[in-house]
Every structure is written in C-alpha cells, then in structure tokens.
Design brief:
The structure is a homodimer of 376-residue chains. The first copy, chain A, contains 15 helices and 17 strands. The relative contact order of chain A is 0.14. In chain A, helix 8 runs parallel beside helix 9. The first copy, chain A, has a single domain (2-272), classed as TIM Barrel (Alpha-Beta Barrel). In chain A, the strands form five sheets. The first copy, chain A, has a five-stranded parallel β-sheet. A four-stranded parallel β-sheet of chain A has the order 5-6-10-11. The radius of gyration of chain A is 20 Å and the shape is globular. With 376 residues, chain A is of the alpha/beta class. Chain A has helices at residues 45-50, 61-66, 70-76, 79-83, 95-100, 127-137, 155-177, 199-211, 228-239, 256-264, 274-280, 312-316, 319-327, 331-358, 361-372; strands at 2-8, 15-21, 24-28, 30-32, 57-59, 89-91, 105-107, 112-115, 122-125, 141-143, 188-190, 192-193, 217-219, 248-250, 269-271, 283-286, 289-292. The first copy, chain A, starts with a strand and ends with a helix. The model of chain A has no long low-confidence stretch (mean pLDDT 97). The longest helix of chain A has 28 residues, at 331-358. Helix content of chain A is 42%, strand content 17%. The interface between A and B is large, with 38 and 38 residues.
Chain lengths: 376, 376
C-alpha cells in the first residue's frame, strides 16, 4: 500500500492524497460506504461503482464472520469475489459490533467472548484470530483488534483500556506479520488510537500506535455520543502526533459537518452508517441542508429529489414520489434515499479534495458547514 | 388503442400480436410486472425499462387511491409522471383488493363500501367513481369494476354475481364514454368476464362482455385457488367466444406453466405478483425449473445465478451470494431475486412470441412445461 500526498491546505491541516492498493487507487479524503454483511444495504454493486462512484467500501468482520461465515468466504476466494466488488475493501476488526450488538460479552486479556446476536452461539475473538479472519475475508486494509470504550467512560477504565489495546496491537502485528495474504494481493494493517475524550490518553495512545509504523493509522472510540467539540479536540490532538506521510482514518464518523471539520484537522478516510441507515428512514443530506422527506411539506413537491445532482435517481424521481415510497414502506424508497445520500457523501469528499488542491478549502468548508446542518 | 395480429399458431390457439397505446407498442403475448403502489417492489424504473425490458406495468387502483391518493396523482399529472414511467400502464379496478385486503366490505347494487386496510377509514367504490379514479391515475388501459368471486363459489351466487358485474359494466361504459382522458393520450376500457368455474356462466358472461365491443377483454376470477385444469377449461370456453381481433387479458395468472398453457389457449396479456412476491422470499423461476435459494444445496454454489441469462444481476452475483442475502434478510437479496424473476417472465413470453411466429410454439411449449415446474 502506498500513500502519496497531492496537496496540503495552508489554512488548515487538510490534505489531498492518493492511496494505492491491490484493487486500485483511492483519492483522499474519501468516504467509505458501509457494506455490513457483504452488501451496502439496498444498493447494487453496479450502482455503487458506476453511479455513486464509491472508491472503497467497508465490510464488518463481526457480521461476515457470523454470516455467511469464513468457510463460504474462503471457498468464494474472499469477499471481493463473493460479492463481486473489484475495488478496495476495508474491514473493521469486529470489536465494535461485539461491544454494541452482542448481549453477553466478556473482555479478558486473551480476547473477548461473546454470544451471536443471531442465534446466541458462543464465540471468542482474540487479536490473533481476528487477524486470521481478516486474512480470510481478504480486505485490502484490515483493522487491529481493539477495545472501543463507550461514552462516557471513566478515566481509570479508559487508561487501562488503551494499555490492553496496545498489548493487543502487538499481538495483532505479530500474527499479521507472520502470515501471508490468501488471494495474491497485499493487505495492510491499521492500528487504532483509543483513549476516550482524555487528551493525555489520546496522546499516549497516538504515540504508542505511531511507534508501530504501520501503513496507515486509525482513530476509534469517537462519534459514540460525545459532543462534536470533544471529537474535534481529540482528532486534533491525535493528528498532531500521527505521522504526516500515512493515511489517517477516523472510524464511524459522521455527519457531513463532522466530515468536513475532521478533514480540516487532517483526516483522510471516513466511514459511517448514517447516509445508508438514515436514508432508509427518509433523511436526505443535501448541500443546502437536511430533508426529512416524510414531512408534509414535500407531499406536493414534484421537483427532482436533488436538482444539484447528476445521479440518475436524484433526477428521475421527485420528492413527492420518494415521500410516498418512504411513507408506504416501499423498498424502492430505501433504495432511492440510500443512493442519494451515498452520492452526496461521495460528492462532498470529492469536492473537499478539489478545494484542497485549488487552495480554497478553508473558506469553502466554513461556508458549507453553515448550510449542511440546516433543516429544510 | 390498436391490436394487430402478427402470427397465429396452427397447432394451438396461440397468437402473436402488437398493441399500440399512447405510450408506445406492446408485443404480445406479454407479462405485466405488478407495480402495486406506483413501484414494482425493489426495482428501479431504469432497471425495469433497460434491464428487464418490461413493456407495460400494472398499477393497483385500490392502493394508489388510498396512497398517495388521487389529489397527489392528479397534481403530478398522472401515474406515469408521478413514478417516471413513460411506457404503457394498465390499472385494475381496485375490486380485487377490496375483496381480498379490506376486512369490512359490503357489496350492494350501488357499489362496494369498505374500510382501508391502512387506517380503517370508510370508502365507497362504484362503477362510476372507479372510472373517474382511473381517469385520474391515467393508465393507458383501465379495467371495468366487477365482482371477483372467491373459490369455491356456489353456482347461485356466481350466477347472480355475473349479472351484477354486467350491470356494473354498463354503468362503467356510460361513465367512461361520457368523460375524457385528462393527460392528452387515449385510455381504453377492458371489461371482465366472470362466472367462477361454471362453463355455462363463463359462456354467458363472455357473450355479454363481447357484446360491449370494447377495445380489449379480460378474464377475471381465475387463479384464485381452483385446480389448474379448471382454469384452463374456463380460459378455453371464454376464448372461443371473445373476439379474435381484440387482445385478451387473463388477470392474476400465474406460474410459468400457467402462462404457457394459457397462451396456447389464446391469451395475450398476463399479470401476477408471483415473480416479485415469491422472489422476495427466495424462489427463483428458471427455464430448467424452480430454485428455492434458501436451501442448503446452494450454500457453496458460486456459479452465476442464471447462466442462461444476459441480465447483469444474473451474471454478476452467485447463487451462494444470493442465498446469503436472502438468508440474512438483506434488501439486495429481494432486489436481485425480483430482477431475476421478472427478467425470466419477460424472457418466457418473448420466447413464446418468437416460437409462435416461427411456427414452433406448440412443441416448444410442451417441452418447456415439463421442465418449468421441476424443483431444482
């Protein structure tokens, strides 16, 4: 994996770059649509590649491990083959879902035991077997196994947690470095900075993580309920420590405003379920603000879903039609809204990149954030 | 509306034809995907037109009347505009859903009072207002308001019912003929033959319906639970009476075998929820038989969904992947299976048409029906 910086903003820490993987290049900053269980919900792979123009998608190790399972994924030749997606894929470590989805879980030094949210069966995730699992899934970028602390989190717990996360990282690296990719293309391992909302812990964790000198670095444990200002403060602290010449991935973030503010702080990669999940519930993100398409005011609005967009479904369908579909629980409503939001998120990061290259990012960003959070 | 016969089979009553509407031509025999509430569930209009190559779709008056409602449909400029579909549309009269979906309904000479299955509100459908409603929806072909008798149905009830259906038809025609289309293109009204599974009632009804000399004729009240042989017997009786030079539409039918057998009896048009509804549950129709994709046997089958198909989703995705999606309740599973089934149904009627024109329909049909109902 190669990371090349293309441009640096002078009024902020924003940077434009390019990541090269075994499945092609990624123009950063980038947003990665979440493809939970081998599918970005309600979207065909053809639409993802040709219409939304996603450059990389994310798969969830927890979901993929439980269903379809490693046996099938390995027989398929990895997730790319299984789902027919030939661009880059990143997988998380499964930790986040273990902490948030499975009811019974027990964190020990060895790893985490948990029960499947599907059938209650018992499983153990360790730093070692999570590396093996991600080798089998075959993502281009894989994540270290960490503990993602909840918000709020007591200082003492957060401190002990990062220490374990760093010990786990050592085990991840040892396993990763002593094994080979299974499908002929390289994989990169990203470690994850934790430390809740405590500046000194975030610094300590960032230093520890940077020390491992992996091909990229991630920040986890944010966007879990803390105020946005705390998130930005932590991103800033961490980005000052993480190496400049490697991509930085802020996990699970966020709203369009969050994304722009974090780009300004030096983040290159994002993922979030918000455009897909909120889309299915009728929330549309646009460059002028947020639309709740269920509202009465869109009932007789026969204008295109997004007149600023070039996406087929934004042009072909009206707001009134989409409102009817979402209101009636029709699948096509979820399909249209998801496409819209993903296309908007991909537009947003592409535009940010162009503004960085043009040297106009900072003012553009400040103007955009005023509009993006408005309710239309 | 014009109907032109292109070819007649010599060994059966099958015919190939062409219907010309204000939204283009339809090559018959044809299958019409069901677009219940202004959407063929899980399918984009772009896919319907370009991939599945649907030539005409069906809308349900009952659903559209309740949601989005006539006010919105009229302001949109009719259903074509509302959903952005510029090929022909046929609407049913709403009667079938009133009988099957609404819990409280009362059939009187004036019409039918019923309660909405959505909010329990009370409504009245009469032959006159159903014509007005379909004028507002703006379908190219609209259906007369009839009583669709259940199966089994006592002879006395069925006899009285067709008499009322015929009186209602007179009222439909009077209202239809004294009103104008709203959106600048013509509409055609098809009456419906009823009579349950009683040969003499079907004959009587077909004669009464033919007497009205409308632009096409339909057969209703079949595929409601009766044995296939009874269905075919009724179709045969009715097709012997309905005029040769007008299209014949068999409502709500059916399986691939039902469709081929009824084409052989002289039917030109079909609609059915089976390809879409059963698709969402993982049942795939293929030229070699029926696949239940949920079955264990497809778990490790990484071959394309349908190797005989040219449809993007049949080629791009494997059986194992589709099984995983349906199993996991992922929307993309419903999307893929629906596309497959609609594409197969459209292939089946297109192939039937070509076989009729080539003079090889009868043997081809007999070979196909042996394979189509097999369980794979």
């Amino acid at each position: 994996m190669k990371f090349q910086q293309v441009a640096l903003d002078t009024l902020s820490k924003a940077r434009a770059g390019e990541i090269t993987t075994g499945h092609g290049t990624i123009q950063t900053p980038i947003f990665m649509p979440v493809g939970t269980a081998g599918t970005v919900k309600a979207v065909h792979q053809r639409e993802l590649a040709n219409d939304v123009k996603a450059q990389i998608i994310l798969g969830n190790t927890y979901h993929l491990y439980l269903r379809p399972g490693l046996d099938i994924l390995e027989k398929a030749g990895g997730l790319h083959q299984f789902m027919n997606w030939d661009k880059p894929i990143l997988t998380d470590s499964g930790g986040y879902q273990v902490y948030s989805l499975s009811e019974v879980r027990k964190i020990k030094e060895e790893g985490v035991t948990f029960r499947s949210h599907i059938d209650g069966s018992k499983h153990l995730f360790t730093p070692e077997n999570v590396m093996d699992t991600q080798r089998i899934i075959g993502a281009d970028i894989i994540m270290a196994f960490d503990e993602c602390t909840p918000y709020p989190c007591e200082y003492g717990y957060a401190r002990k947690s990062i220490e374990m996360t760093h010990r786990w990282l050592k085990r991840c690296c040892e396993r990763f470095d002593s094994t080979e990719p299974k499908y002929g293309y390289p994989q990169a391992l990203f470690p994850i900075v934790q430390g809740s909302v405590y500046k000194d812990l975030r610094e300590k964790s960032a230093e520890a993580i940077a020390f491992f000198e992996r091909e990229g670095n991630a920040i986890g444990g944010l966007s879990v309920g803390e105020p946005a200002e705390e998130m930005y403060a932590m991103t800033e602290v961490v980005c000052n420590i993480l190496p400049q010449n490697k991509p930085r991935y802020l996990m699970g973030v966020g709203t369009p405003v969050n994304i722009l503010e974090n780009i300004a702080l030096g983040i290159d990669m994002f993922d979030c379920v918000m455009p897909t999940r909120n889309g299915r519930n009728g929330m549309l993100f646009t460059r002028n603000g947020i639309i709740n398409i269920k509202n009465e005011k869109w009932k007789n609005d026969f204008s295109a879903i997004d007149e600023d967009s070039a996406l087929f479904s934004d042009i072909n369908y009206s707001k009134a039609y989409l409102r009817h579909l979402i209101h009636s629980g029709e699948m096509l409503g979820a399909q249209i809204a998801t496409l819209h939001n993903l296309n908007f998120y991909l537009w947003l990061v592409k535009e940010a990149r162009e503004q960085i290259i043009a040297g106009t990012f900072y003012n553009w960003k400040n103007n955009m954030v005023k509009k993006l959070a408005q309710r239309l």
